[in-house]
Amino acid sequence: MTLTPWWRDAVVYEVYVRSFADSDGNGEGDLQGIRSRLGYLRDLGVDALWLTPFYTSPLADGGYDVADYRDVDPRFGTLRDFDALVADVHAHGLRLIVDIVPNHSSDRHPWFREALAAPPGSPARSRYIFRPGKPGERPGEERPPNDWPSAFGGPAWTRTDDGEWYLHLYAREQPDFNWRNPEVRSEFEEILRFWLDRGVDGFRIDVAAGLFKDASFRDLGGQDRRASDGPIYSRPEVHDVYRRWRRILDEYDGDRMAIGEVWTDGPEDLALYLRPDELHQVFQFDLQLASWSATQFRDVATAAMKAVAPTGAAPTWVLSSHDSIRHVTRYERPESVPGIGYARAKAALLMLLALPGSAYLYQGEELGLPEVLDLPDEARQDPIWERTNRRLAGRDGCRVPLPWAGTAEPYGFSPDGVRPWLPMPRDWASRTAEAQASDPSSMLAFYREALALRRRMANDLPDDLEWLDSPETAVFFRRGPLTCALNCGENPVRLPPGTPLLTSTPLYGDLLPGNTGCLLESGPTAA
Ligand code: NOJ
Fold first, then answer.
1. Rounded CA gap, 211 and 83, in Å?
2. Do 433 and 327 share a structural domain?
3. Is 173 among the domain residues?
């Protein structure tokens, strides 16, 4: 009998480490904080945790700027804490995925310090991407080597003191590695082994499509930055890296896995990463990008499943992450009927969990947290804020620390009296995990119930689904014994056949109210 590998239908909970739980009172979450809340995650019913970077970092981009890939930043703990966390995660019956950031390092990484101190053309510089600039309009003026923009605003190049420019697809504190240099390759292979030896179950690969740039460094010339036939992402050479990584993962026992953060404009391109000797999963952001619309949900889910079908990999689904506006708030737009985003988020969870494949949840969505839209300017830390000259607020609003208990900041996130690294809203007393745990009508109770239902049925659900006829405002689909109905409209619709098991708002007889989801035990199929 072949067992389904754990990740294929896992529910993975993203822990944004800095904002999860602060055990030592420095206002930032840490590994011991996570350890102390593993019971909460087990009881929630998830299968695995994905930790965002906790490595040594000046946190110019929340830790996605790594200065030492083999150590824990002191603000988050120590390697001993990490080892203890791995052991405890496993003892709780959970798995652990860690982030790996291979596209760029911090500008404080010893290699980059060395590169800056070394002359142009030196081996130290060849670990990164240094290029001469181009002549500017006026005499003596210089332009960057090409027209590539940084994903965070402004150009992707910064000029060094000696006149060479270095590439950074993100903040200037995040210089891009030169993956054509074999030293970079072997360094990352060793880093993978370092964490695999410590017992991690998988990796989430940051900017997985970005490692190789087109050797010509040609201008984008108006082409989309992320285009899979553009010069920046998804160059064919990247696949060789993942083939080598896959071989390393396969050397270890226990179904170690890798999921790539692959932003691409084409399903064919996405599928390349999922060839049997490459990555196990890629993030599919389609649901996250869709608006509250039955037609859109059906279309994007169909396309997402079609994209991975030829590879045999299972799809992945996500509604929120540390990079996007929380879906409670997203679903409130463009209307702003109070509470509608909350009701929709509840309903959407049932679709997310009923779809085949695995689901990635973002910390705090189980508490129904909204985006914090009114952070004071001086509190904002996301580099997007400054790099866009304060035009775009950035991603801090979804990274506000979790409220655990109590009635005022820090809501049990930090010890009393400590100010968390981002201010927490005044009206979160009813949103704490503690307040919700004892309230059967809370979002937390609903998440627990939905996850328990999914777990109970997991073994009986086929890999594929069948769309059922539905009114235009609704999506109905069936996976063997389970039927999912989601009504994105405002008016009630008649439920598909079956016995309701869980609903996001009370049914009216056999009617499914607007902005409501329902899971049913499937009724008999039409003869
Ligand atoms: C994707 C990460 O999720 C995001 O937070 C980060 O800013 C960029 N990659 C750059 O590392």
1. 29
2. yes
3. no
